[in-house]
Amino acid sequence: MPDAVRSCVLLCESVRMDGNRSSSGPSTARAARASHPGTPLEAGLLDVERRERILDHVRDAGIARIADLAAALGVSPMTVRRDADRLVAEGRAERVRGGVRLARSPVTEEPGPLAKAMLHRDEKERIARTATSLVRPGTAIGIGAGTTTLELARRIADVPGVTIVTNSLSVALALPHREQVVLTGGERTRSDALVGPVANRSAASIGLDMLFLGAHGIDAERGCTAPNLAEAETNRALMAAARATVVLVDASKWSVQGLSTFAALDELDVLISDVSLPAAAARAARRAVGRLVLA
């Protein structure tokens, strides 16, 4: 073969090989990642998408370490720190030593009843349906204030022979045709709860087979909390009158803290939440509560 032709052939082969390497590089890398589902795929996400993934991790774990987030997302710890700082600036997260957690509302902040009723409606309905199965005909039960306990009251309206004691105006009004309803009296709060000395004296004079309470917030350290001192005191008075206490809280209440604790977790006989309760929260609850039910 003449030298000129040989040179041309070699040049063409070289170009073809380089082209194959160039064209196969990104697709080959993508194929390799796709064939290894354990490999982090989030590294190519947009910044806003990555920050949402961070929040998802934090919701699941309660608190997430920067190093763990970086490994899960396939990015550097510095990138996670910048994302965390952005989330803090937006008021969506808080920095803790070595990690990040969801931003918490002020301990005295309490949305109005209408605003609360619109939140997590499906979860509250499932929780109330599960709680209804605990109510036995002919018993005396207490129902505290709250949107989930209000849903419970609507569902037990037809259970025969049940006497209902409540410190909630909303609960009493939801049972207009039921005769066996006792309203404690007291001072009205933003959540339509009746609290204070009058409510506490009423609670001290009765006996309940079972008490159903909501909570402003709940966590492993402080237990169940209320947004004001008077409501916490009245909840404690109702608990003292009851043989068993059941607390109804959807998963969004976990890690929320109110001003005053009314019950430690180990004081609860039953805690009913929903299936989106973070795994770490569920483990903490199972260690302390008599019985955890996820609706």
Explain what this protein looks like in three dimensions.
Helix content is 44%, strand content 18%. The chain is an alpha/beta fold and 295 residues long. The strands form four sheets. Strands 6-5-4-9-12-14-15 form a seven-stranded parallel beta sheet, sandwiched between helices. Strands 1-3-2 form a three-stranded antiparallel beta sheet. β2 and β3 form a beta hairpin. α2 packs across α4, α3 (66-73) packs across α4 and α9 (197-204) runs parallel beside α10 (229-240). The termini are far apart.
In a few lines, what is going on in this structure?
With 295 residues, this protein is of the alpha/beta class. The chain has eleven helices and 15 strands.
What key attributes describe this structure?
single chain, 295 residues, alpha/beta, seven-stranded parallel beta sheet, 11 helices, 15 strands, 44% helix
Uncertain segments are 3-42
Question: What is the CA-atom radius of gyration, in angstroms?
Answer: 28 Å
Given the helix and strand composition, which structural class is it? alpha/beta
Helical residue percent?
A: 40-55%
Largest sheet: 7 strands, parallel
Mean pLDDT: 83
Discrete helix count: 11
Report the count of strand segments.
15
CA-CA gap between termini: 81 Å
SSE topology:
Blueprint: H1 3-34, H2 47-61, E1 63-65, H3 66-73, H4 77-89, E2 93-96, E3 99-102, H5 113-117, H6 121-132, E4 140-143, H7 147-155, E5 163-166, H8 169-173, E6 181-183, E7 187-188, E8 194-195, H9 197-204, E9 210-213, E10 217-219, E11 223-226, H10 229-240, E12 245-248, E13 260-263, E14 270-273, H11 279-288, E15 292-294
Parallel strand pairs: 4-5, 4-9, 5-6, 9-12, 12-14, 14-15
Antiparallel strand pairs: 1-3, 2-3, 7-8, 10-11, 11-13
